Amino acid sequence: MPFVDSNGCRIYYRLEGLASKPLLVLVHSLGTDHGMWDLQMPAMLTRFQVLRLDLRGHGASDAPTGDYTIAELGGDVLAAVKAAKRERFAYCGLSLGGMIGQWLGANAGELLSGLVLANTSPKVDNPNLFETRRTSVLKQGMRAVHKTVMERFFCGRMLDSPNATVESIRTVLRQTNPVGYAGCCAAIRDMDHCTLLADIKVPTLVIAGLQDISTPYAGHGEVLFEGIVGAGVLMLDAAHLSNVERPSAFSAALFDFLLPAMADDVSDAGLSVRRAVLGNAHVDRSIAGTTDFTSDFQQMITRYAWGTVWTRPGLDLRVRRLLVLAMTASLGRWEEFRLHVRTGLASELELTDLKEVLLQVAIYAGVPAANTGFHTAIDEERRLEEQRKT
After folding, report:
1. What proportion of the chain, given as a percentage, has pLDDT over 70?
2. For position 263, what pLDDT does the model report?
3. How far apart are alpha carbons 121 and 209 in whole angstroms?
4. Among candidate residues 301, 364, 355, 353, the one with its CA nearest the CA of residue 327
5. Any bridge partners for residue 12, and if so which?
6. How far apart are CA 201 and CA 275, in angstroms?
7. Which 8-state DSSP code applies to residue 50?
8. In angstroms, rounded to a whole number, what is the distance separating the alpha carbons of residues 209 and 1?
9. CATH for 3-258, among 3.40.1280.10, 3.40.50.300, 3.40.718.10, 3.40.50.1820?
10. Domain 267-389 has CATH 1.20.1290.10
11. Residue 262 pLDDT > 60, yes or no?
């Protein structure tokens, strides 16, 4: 397991994705761990290398005795970034992670390309609340705060229905080291970032939850929005862990804010995605076969289909291909269906994926369409097997 020493404290971190992509650091709330971001990871890894860590006192990281400070926790983040051998990064932190983000923005802003502060505050309304929590968990363990914290983490609809992610977070909360939890409570208790917000010059997005009773927008998110020059704001219909309650909307917000604006000419991006999905051989044949009569059509497809829609980060290429297969089978566009079966099987798809798509087609578009789709898939799999043999 990867660990880094941060001023004598061993910090667990997890680095995922391609080093050629920009780095995104995700930092969790009080009482969770790096797994809080699991729902964001498949989408994030399409555009970023992602660094997650367990803050001191949480997860696999050490839990030193005594009170912690936000500056110490910020140092843990910087130590993990240094261990990842990256010099510049985008940062997204939720709750305690957002408090650390404020400190980083003011004290290490030259390292940040963008800053997302979610469900957080520059100063808590009642520091005594966190002192009470601190003393309670040290005396009685995590059972002293478990129920109250879960009711703040999630809306009632999330808690009242079976949800694997909610139960996973419940388990992590229960198993959090009380000593570490207490140390972080002290950091929140003593924090006052109101005077340093003006020092944050990094492009910043504030995310708030409409049902967040821990750090509501009024008096918390709004202070960040008004105090950080040029900050943007987004409201989500969620409680405190908005990234868990609204994972797609949260991820979309990160993409919209952190990714550079789309270039005026999207043809190059479209051609790159087209090659990634259909393969160089097919694209090269299409380009070679372009005539004066078909060139405008080819440019339109590359620019608008591949460069505008297929490049959108909300769905990865595999999901988009599965959608294309379902739609082309349902509409009987068998030439296009065969193309995506052939190129899909040659890259990331398996026959199991095709089977599931075609079962959906059978229910919603009819058995005859699914039947043709199955025959086409089998035919292409056999053709691919023959190629492998030769």
Report:
1. 98
2. 45
3. 12
4. 364
5. 3
6. 39
7. E
8. 34
9. 3.40.50.1820
10. yes
11. no
